[in-house]
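Open question from group meeting: does this chain pack into something compact, or does most of it stay loose? Before anyone orders reagents, we agreed to write out a predicted structure and look at it together. Recording both the input and the output here so the notebook holds the full record.
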Amino acid sequence: MVILDGGLATHLEALGADLSDDLWSARLLLEDPSVIRKAHLDYFAAGAQVATTASYQASIPAFTRRGLDADEAEELILLSVRLAAEARDSHGEGTVAASVGPYGAYLANGAEYTGDYDLDEDGLVAWHRDRWHILAGSGADLLACETVPSYPEARALRRLLAETPGTRAWVSFSCRDGERISDGTPLSEAAALFADHPQVIAVGVNCTAPRHIPDLIGRIKGKPVVVYPNSGETWDAEERRWHGLADPVEYGAAAAGWHAAGAALVGGCCRTTPEHIRQIREHLTTA
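Structure tokens returned:
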């Protein structure tokens, strides 16, 4: 059993960071990288065994849109890995997973929860390629291909894996219900793309309502299952705010159930905190 971290942006906001920006947590790579390191350390202290980097929205196009050149953008992407590695080293142990956010994260319009894209598979390969190779060569232990909402994007990521044969990764999808990923493709079909892939260590689901996780776990075959749902709250893309509330103790109890149902890697995504991860650890220890 591996315990992942929780919502990086959520904890950064709790630490006082202003993330009201299309770059989201990647903005702090420019403005306050030390707070990112602090957030990683807090998650390790809560029981996480993996630090997921602040590169979810840190793409080359996102930074060049902000006015940086390609070399400056690459340096910031590499910085996201160094910060997680520094926190890992300070803690004394752990794994660094370099976040590969979906194209929808760059669009900053909620498309990572719909898969409504203006690029086809070839276009997605081209869009992801530069950051993919930067992160593959960054020294991170693996790539976390996360919140993947569409089947064409999953196919694009599979093609990029072939370009970096020494790279390990997990692939996790955003899902609309207990059966389908966000673009409507059955999760079983999307997950099957990676079922026999030697570089993929786990396949699963993230940033999805916790109530759907038990059904989704059973639809993944051939690989260890990774799940890190959101808190169950609802994101309003128009208002750019969350609605609802989630209790960490209840989340920890649910996580023990996901592990019992077959999940090998468990953590949290948006709106989960170090306390959610602490509760996962406590419930799994006493289960």
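Observations to bring back to the group:
The chain has one domain: 2-286.
The first strand starts at residue 2 and ends at 3.
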